[in-house]
Each structure stands twice: as C-alpha cells, then as structure tokens.
Description:
The chain has about 450 residues and is mainly β. It has helices at about 5-15, 95-100, 280-285, and strands at about 35-50, 60-70, 80-95, 125-135, 140-145, 150, 155, 165-170, 180-190, 195, 220-230, 235-240, 245-260, 265-275, 300-315, 315-325, 360-370, 380-390, 395-410, 420-430, 435-450.
Amino acid sequence: MFKRSSLPAAIALAGLSFGAQAADTKQHGFVEDSTASVTARNFYINQDNRDGTANPSKQEEWGQGFIFNFASGYTQGTVGFGVDAIGLLGIRLDSGKGTAYNAGSANKGGIVFPSDSDGRAVSDFSSLGLTAKVKVSKTELRLGTLQPKLPVVQSNDGRLLPQTFQGGQVTSNEIDGLTLVGGKLEHAKGRNSTNNDSLTIAGSNGATSTATSNKRSNEFYYAGGDYKITKDLTAQYYYGELENFYKQHFLGLTHNLALPVGSLKSDLRYFNSGSDGKNASQEGRLEGYRSSGFQTKNGEVDNRTWSAKFTYSLEGHAISAGYQRVNGTSDFPFLNQGDGASSYLITDVQLGKFQRAGERTWLAQYAYDFAKVGLPGLTAGVIYLKGDNINATNYDRSEWERDISVGYVVPEGTLKGLGLAWRNAAFRSDATNQRDQDENRLIASYTYSFF
C-alpha cells in the first residue's frame, strides 16, 4: 500500500535514470531563466437558486482579481535549486449582504469572496504562496504551494482566484515517454479563502465544528504516471489515499485517431475507491469520518466509476458523446473542502458533477472554433448532460444540466491576449437536498509578462 513511505519511494523511483543526466549539458541560470507575470481577472457571477427555503435565493458577486506568478530558473550545477511564488489578491467591486450572505459563525464565504462575522463579503482578500524546488537531470522536487492537475487530485480555478495546496511533489521525466509523479498534500486553500485548511470529502466537510460534521486529515498521498505507448496512445495509472477516508485507484487510456476525414479522440477512465482507516470502521463513521451517498453502512466509501467519451473533430467542429456509470453505495470521493473543488470526471461541468451513488449519465457536446471562417480567437460550445438512477430511499432520482459558453481572445494588436468569456448554465435535479440553479458568469482576463 502506498502510504507514509510513499514520498521517499517516489523519489527513489524518479531517480532510476539519474545516470542519464549527462545527456543534458546545457546550463541555465537562476536569474536568466526566471519568468514573472501578472494576470488581471475581472469576474462577475449571478446564481439563481430557484427553489427551496434556504437563504440566499439569489447570489450575485463581482470582483477584480490579480494573480502574480514568479518562477525562477535553477542554480547551475548537477543539483539545481530554485523558488517559485504565487501572489493572490481579490478586490470586491459589488456584493451586498443580500446576495452574498452566509449565516453562521463558521461559514465558508460566498461564491467569490470570504464572509465577515456578519455574513457580508469582505472588501478584499489576499495571500502569498512560496515553493522551493530542486532539480537533478529531468527530475524535480517541489515543496510548498502546489496546484496539481492529476486524475486523483485537481486544483480548482473556477472563480476569481485559484485553489492551492500545501505539500511536496516529485516529478520525473527521465525515461522518454514516461512521466512519474509522487507526493503528499497536507492543506488546501479555497478559492474564496486566505486560510490553509486540512483535507476532507463530501459527507465530512460540514461548515460547523461539531464533532461529527467536520472531520479532516492532513495526509493525502498520491503516486502514478503517464506512459506514451505511441505518439497517439497514452496510458495512465494513479493512486490516491486520504488517510482515514478513502483509497483510490485510477486507470486511464486516451487515443487520437487520424481519419480520412477529420479525427477521433477516445478517452476512457476507471476509478476504484474504497474505505480507509476510520471510515472503514463503524466506530470511525459514527465519529464523523463519513462519505456522502446512499449507504447501507452509515457513510462508508464504496465506489467504482467508469466513463467513456469520444470526440470527432473536423474543420473547427468538435462533436462529443459520452457515458458515465457510478457504481457502489457511496458518491464518488474526491478532495472536497466544501468551498469549491474539482474532480477528474467527464461530467464535472459548470454546476453539477453527476457523481452520485448509482448515477448513470449521458452527455452530448458541441464546440466550434471560428478561426476556420476567418474569426481567430472566437470559440463557442454547448454541452447537455442527463443523469438518472440516483439511489434514494423511496425512488431513484434524476437530474440534467445544459451549459453554453462563448469566448474570445484578441489575437493581435495592442490588446493581444485580452480574453472575454460568457458562461451560462441551467441545472435541474430532484436529488435529495439539491436545489435547481441558473447561473451566468462574465469573465475578462489579461496576462502581462514582465520577463
């Protein structure tokens, strides 16, 4: 089992081919290879919770965010040292108590900004993350602030500022076509927060601090790799374990096939998740180490989720069809602090995730790149998902979502790189404790590189 000894093991695994380091003789400098940029992101969101009695029925927030990224080069020598930094600042432009209110002394804030003790959105919030890095040959160790994008852990960037994690990660590319990754995460900082919180999942991520509603862990271990079998075929295996909650295996396969007319991409994914530590015992689940879902064992993680998605592309058009099946008595488990999180599911879209116990989901998607008709930078897309067979006490439930997106990035001239986007979503569900929602997002962003 991949557990406390996993990080040293990953480092040893990553260093299997250190003897090949002499092949990369080009020297770079700490200063010479440094980069720095700032992204200005203007973000407006309007969310209409169409049913239910809980407040607020409408949430509307608007803010200006700044994301500063600095990445140094490496010092010269066999072992190179460097440092990265990410600075985050969010400024409230409009968000009243009536549209951002979150009652309770331990609330997690609105949908964009943290909330003060009175439930109002704060005027601004900021944080700084630092990452030390060490590189030998084609293997890198990073310690500090991380933003992983892996099948078993996904950093969320769906609001004004991105989510970050604290921990350590080793990445190795010593063998051609093979990328190996291993690490440990201890804390997460939400996209509307300045605090690093311990890790948890849905079912245990309650906003209150009662003994049975807010259980957490400081140990999430992960390891795995991507192997490019051919230039068009990639296989993946990853393992993730949140101590006292769940352990998860992932298998993935992606393939790109050139056809006489157009091309076809296949994306196959399989997750197998089971209980770990206290979640595996009745006593531990009664303490609060629980998963959400329709369980017969009081919140034990028991989930097997598989999916297949196929995309046909031709002359700027992309048409996709997919199917996902969630088996087991619990919902699909993933790191979820309750303040906005992402999962590596083909059904993780603007509002819903379609990851409930027993759920079967079909999706259809269409996207178009207008560069093919002389409008470079303009894209549009629509996706529709329908899920049914959601396990419930009295009858199986269902839900659906429709998302529309339009984006434009100025391709040249003085405003080159300025991005504008509109995203609209409608979500309807009769699942327990789930409200119907309509949502609009307007986003303007621009990145300026200093060097």
